[in-house]
What does this fold into?
Amino acid sequence: MKPKAGITAAIGGAVVFASAGVHLGAGGAGLARVSILGAALGATAYTDLASHRIPNRIVVPACTACAVLLSADRASVQRLIPSLVLVALMLLVSFASPASFGMGDVKLALLVVLGLGDVAPRALLLGLVLAAVFGLLLILRFGRPAAARSLPLAPFLATGAAVAVLL
It folds into this structure.
């Protein structure tokens, strides 16, 4: 794994998400929040592809920063309930079948919720659907052995978040 490529992915993610935030008229804390989210998603997508890991050293500080910035926006916690329900479901599935979702995937989903706020359910669902479709295509192409392999979820969650922010 090349550190410069991870940094490049983080910068690219921050730029894409910050640009979308500016385009949507996000200001101050909202713009900072989506920029942090973009940087973290870029870095974790790269790391997950390269090593099938989502590092806590990226996700936990980004979650903390996004939570602080979300509270600065005075966002209603009630608006986050649908997103938090999805994260809770992912956590339950992770406990029931650890091969399906790792704890890093669940923490990354929480980061998406804290970074996107009430847009997060659309982003999470889109990312999960993209991963499921890709997995199905792999199974159709390569048969049963493909079902035993694990997919890195971070690139799909990052794509779902990017599409949700850009639309």
Summary: The chain has one domain: 3-166. The helical segments are 3-23, 28-51, 56-72, 81-96, 103-116, 120-142, 144-147, 154-166.
